[in-house]
Design brief:
The chain is an alpha/beta fold. The protein has twelve helices and eleven strands.
């Protein structure tokens, strides 16, 4: 993705927010409990910096000139039990918005955990590129294929009542093309349901969050950006939902707020605002629960969106043609 042109709205009104060295990314993935090797994806670029860019028109944020994860990268990640979670809050939220006997396409379905949340009688199909996940899903009796979304949308245009994708959009290098392909597979009146890491949450202010950087995540999505993306592909936004802070993320969020609170306090003291200095000050602050609570409250006042949990889910409907709308208003028109 270029640093000059937005990959979503294709405008050139962009600015650089930050950057990170490729060497730091490689070390972050190898350490931090991840144990994932990424050096091969970056080649001989370890001394280069990757900019985080924001479109001033649609508000999309993306890492420019960054590689995306390949099969070997995701094979390393999937050894962690938390990577393909069997139950995510967005699963129950989305399943409640899928009608009975609906035809559902899930893109990037992993081992198909979402399928087990759907109402009985749902016609489910999943698309997934991870071979181990496809084998596991098919072994559980699910219809999952290793197939590009573009091929499925071309073969079955307007076929599905719902197209869903959870924690997928932030991985793709062409988000606009991906969303258009997904929309093409939805019937008029059907829905797209999308979940991504929420930039309007504590995740958006987390530092050194390697899994929210390339080669894992290429883009970052605010509520405003998601709404604009749905409208850009001709869908009507019905609902945006932020998950509560999950128990598994509670400690991480507290650490993020503590760091943010310290940086707010020390913003006029640049020599005390280095990562090493902040780490030392955090250890001192953690001796006082009251001080920690005060610093976190300070951070929340500055960043109220940090009350939100990790993921945001948006629901958008594909408008029906005028003739279909007229029939919906007058059931007798079907018999005329």
């Amino acid at each position: 993705m270029s640093p000059e042109v937005c990959p979503l709205c294709e405008q050139r009104h962009v600015r650089t927010l930050d950057d990170v060295t490729i060497g730091a990314i490689v070390r972050g993935y190898q350490g931090s409990g991840l144990g994932v090797s990424t050096a091969a994806l970056f080649g001989n670029r370890l001394s280069e910096r990757i900019p985080l860019v924001q479109c001033q028109s649609c508000r999309l944020r993306w890492f420019a000139n960054a590689p995306w994860g390949d099969a070997a990268f995701y094979e390393q990640l999937q050894v962690h039990p938390w990577y393909y979670q069997a139950d995510k809050p967005e699963f129950s939220f989305a399943a409640a918005r899928v009608g009975p006997f609906a035809r559902v396409l899930e893109v990037g379905c992993g081992s198909g955990a979402f399928a087990h949340c759907l109402p009985e009688g749902t016609a489910y199909k999943g698309l997934e590129f991870n071979d181990a996940a496809v084998r596991k899903a098919c072994g559980a009796g699910l219809h999952v294929e290793k197939l590009p979304l573009a091929e499925e949308a071309a073969a079955r245009p307007g076929h599905y009542d719902a197209v869903v994708h959870f924690q997928v959009l932030e991985h793709v290098p062409d988000p606009l093309g991906f969303l258009r392909q997904a929309a093409a597979a939805i019937r008029p009146g059907g829905r797209m349901i999308v979940a991504v890491p929420a930039e309007d949450s504590f995740v958006g202010i987390a530092e050194s969050c390697w899994l929210n950087m390339p080669p894992h995540h290429l883009t970052r999505w605010s509520d405003v950006c998601l709404e604009g993306a749905m409208e850009r592909i001709g869908l009507q936004v019905e609902e945006i939902w932020h998950e509560p802070v999950a128990e598994v993320h509670a400690h991480w969020r507290e650490d993020v707020l503590l760091t943010c609170g310290l940086r707010q306090l020390l913003r006029q003291q640049p020599r005390l605002s280095s990562s090493r200095a902040i780490s030392g000050l955090k250890r001192l602050a953690q001796r006082s629960p009251r001080l920690c609570a005060w610093l976190r409250a300070r951070a929340l006042r500055a960043f109220p969106q940090a009350r939100h949990g990790h993921s945001v889910c948006i629901v958008a409907r594909k408008p029906a043609p005028a003739a279909v709308s007229e029939q919906a208003r007058d059931p007798g028109a079907m018999d005329a």
